[in-house]
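Please produce the structure of this protein holding flavin mononucleotide.
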Amino acid sequence: MSEVNGNGGAVEETRVLLRHAEDPKMASLEGYESYGGYRVLKKALKEIEPEWIVGELEESGLRGRGGAGFSMGKKVSFLPHTDDAKYLCCNADESEPGAFKDRELMQRNPHQLIEGMIISSFAASIGHAFIFIRGEYDEQADILDHAVEEAYEAGYLGNNILGSGFNLELVVHRGAGAYICGEETALLDALEGKRGNPRLKPPFPAVQGLYGGPTLINNVETLSNVSHIVANGADWFKSFGTEQSPGTKVVSVSGCVKRPGNYEVELGVTLRDLIFGLAGGPLDGHEIKAFYPGGSSSPVLTPAELDLPYSFEAMAEAGSMLGSGSIIVADDSVSIPRMAKRTSKFYRHESCGKCTPCREGTSWTDKMLERVCTGEATPMDLDIISSVQDNIMGNCLCVLGDAMAMPVSSMVKKFRDEFEETIAEEAAKTWSFDGLEAVDGQEPGPGGMSQKTLRRERLAGRSIPGEGVS
Ligand SMILES: Cc1cc2nc3c(=O)[nH]c(=O)nc-3n(C[C@H](O)[C@H](O)[C@H](O)COP(=O)(O)O)c2cc1C
Ligand code: SF4
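Below is the modeled complex.
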């Protein structure tokens, strides 16, 4: 697990969640138990007070690994201490481009997640738990189904678990493949059998969630950490990572690197260690141009930021975010305007359409970026794209709109020259007026516009830079 790289120095993975993951036995109950699995649950049910578990989770500083980075222990403590039916939903929707760490965690070690869910449910007096897994993760859903069956047979799930008097039912629910169903309230609607649309907040799920009951929603990786924290204590957990970002993190590194994959590291290692040291850096003869540090919804960073520590706080200070911990690398062979266009296309497609800034904004942005990539835009359109992003951010019902606006805005800001060059280059590949066929070599007209755009703008009576209204 140790890697040496000229650019990244000596880098070590710190495997807690992925420990023994390469052993295929880990996916079975027998294999998991042979490495000490379910021992913590047995101890917790017999000897530990639920309040102690909640306190230890809070004290550990474990932050949600699904995107927002909110304290898990705090979320548990928000659940009301009433006799109402309470629910736990594990978010296994993992649909953001660049994210694939939950898939590996569920595939290689499903019982680690199940044990974490049982202990969390015990701590919060929850009687019904669900794993909402994206429909495309068919193999992982089958593995989970089998593992849940094994856990029932062993008496870890069901009524009167291990004679403790604690009851828990756990259901694996397959989604239908919509990114928006990963948003926690859309997930609740989808679980209830409705179309997965985000709900207005407040009320927050901890107060009124699934079927109107208090609900704890956490990511696969977050819940997979629980048995380790209860077994080893909050101080042990805090011995990894940074003060504000304790623990290890499974980071998915993809894109233009030699060794894409999941790497579990202590939070706070440098981006260079991750991208160069572990993932091998860009292919020979190429340089890194930009990267998303936290999935396709995070503002892009540039090589100048490679020596930053990979932590929630450092990514926020750099104007981006750690998100779910997915780094996507673009090298010098990648066109940033086209990368922006791919990004907007995804979010436009996944927008549920419930609120106007996101529904219209993602669609407008995608169309404008299409014009950039075909040379029909003008440099002035770049200002309009930026202002559309500003009007989306902070004005949507959920953060899907922002998830497009933030990266697109950062790309236009940091790579404006490349956007202008792309417009000019594409405009130079102009079109014949009548047959709309590409005719290379025609010079772009005033304002860098293609002849096709000029014709359209003149027909519409709009002003052409340097010409006025024709
Ligand atoms: C559009 C959208 C998609 C999301 N997709 C996921 C997802 O696939 N998995 C996930 O854990 N969280 C996802 N989230 C974040 C969840 O809303 C929620 O914050 C998270 O499940 C809470 O768990 P955590 O505190 O353990 O991170 C998404 C959020 C948005 C706005
Ligand atoms: S921001 Fe987009 S995805 Fe979220 S509710 Fe509004 S339209 Fe739907």
